[in-house]
Amino acid sequence: MVSKFPQMGSSIFSEMSQLAAHYQAINLSQGFPDFSIDDRLKMHLAQAAQSHFHQYVPMAGYGPLLERLATLTEAQYGRPINPQNELLITAGATQGIFAAIQALVHPGDEVIVLDPSYDCYTTPIQLVSAHPVRVPLGADFLPDWSQIKAAVGSRTRMIIINSPHNPSGRVWTSEDYVALQQLVAQHPQLVVLSDEVYEYITFVAGPQSVHQYPQLWERCVSVSSFGKSFHCTGWKIGYMVASEPLMREIKKVHQFLVFSVNSVAQVALATYLDEVSVVTLGDFYRQKRDYFSRLMQTTAFTLLPCEGSYFQLVSWPTAHVESDMSLVKRMVQEVGVAAIPLSPFYEHPPQNQHLRFCFAKSDATLEQAVERLQKIKF
């Protein structure tokens, strides 16, 4: 057997979760909540399971859910959408990203990936015999447009963006989207794949999305996540928005990858969207962020700005002599708390490394974790 990915092992997320389980540590590494979903969503799922919605729904998605998502996208961002031709329900955001890259990127193409970046971007690029071009974000984890522009050439087919950003929690500014718009205008072959799974978990004024910039509409694909928005990551259900020509190609891949997505979950979400306001998510997680921040003031860690997502980056007093990988393993073993090192998010990790903590946890979990983190020695 000749491996396509001989250097690839288990992901850092799996590795740290396994370590956490082995040492019975508090797991602040993987990005999943440890609190319950809304009781109304549970009720709607139970009702759907008692109904007749147990067969395939249409390949693009359950009609009423598509209609509600079109209404939501126009209400939040001002972008009108044809729910039949410009929306697709996916088996989680990762599947959507995979399908978009398989459909739109060709052998020999180049794809701009902004480091630090989530680990699901580069593998589907390599599977189509294309080339990921890793461009580092600035020291503030925002786009360095001079480097991005220098990296884009005639072979560049796609740029993958992510805001709110995992792992840093930074949120793009309107100036960044204007710069992206100018870049797309200068390169007619360029398509934008916008990872917006934390779109409603923002702590800055007003939403920021590719959908707010009409000149991007024909050239962008956005990926969203019900799992992130509604605390149900195990459902593995998300959705994509794209112009009809792009979506037509993506659906060609989607239909032979999963065809259609969990029917009862789609029915439950369609009903739930009539009852819930996504704009309250920012307030909910802002309180989580602020509480975790106050707790962490009692530790030796220094917190970086967090404007969105449910991740908090930190630095530590001996970062110049102790690697992030060494520290996370030592923390699990010595004090029983798991975090994620930032170096696996890069092709070429810089020296100023950080750790990522997930604060999408109950107050009790955060309190216990910080009490243990107070004991780590530097």
Question: What does this protein look like?
Answer:
By secondary structure, the protein is α/β, with parallel strands linked by helices. The chain is 37% helix and 15% strand. The chain is built from 13 helices and 13 strands. Strands 2-8-7-6-5-3-4 form a 7-stranded mixed beta sheet, sandwiched between helices. The chain has a 4-stranded antiparallel beta sheet with strand order 9-10-13-12. A two-stranded parallel ribbon has the order 1-11. Strand 3, helix 5 and strand 4 (131-136) form a beta-alpha-beta unit. Helix 4 (93-104) crosses helix 9. The longest helix is centred in the last third of the chain and has 16 residues, at 281-296.
Briefly summarize what is shown.
The chain is of the alpha/beta class and 378 residues long. Helix content is 37%, strand content 15%. Helix 2 crosses helix 10, helix 3 packs across helix 10 and helix 11 runs parallel beside helix 13 (363-373).
Fold blueprint:
Layout (H helix, E strand, L loop, with lengths): L11 H11 L3 E2 L11 H11 L13 H15 L9 E4 L2 H12 L5 E6 L6 H6 L3 E6 L8 H7 L4 E7 L11 H13 L4 E5 L24 E6 H4 L8 E5 L1 H14 L5 H10 L8 H16 L5 E2 L7 E5 L8 H11 L2 E2 L1 E2 L13 E4 L4 H11 L5
Parallel strand pairs: 1-11, 3-4, 3-5, 5-6, 6-7
Antiparallel strand pairs: 2-8, 7-8, 9-10, 10-13, 12-13
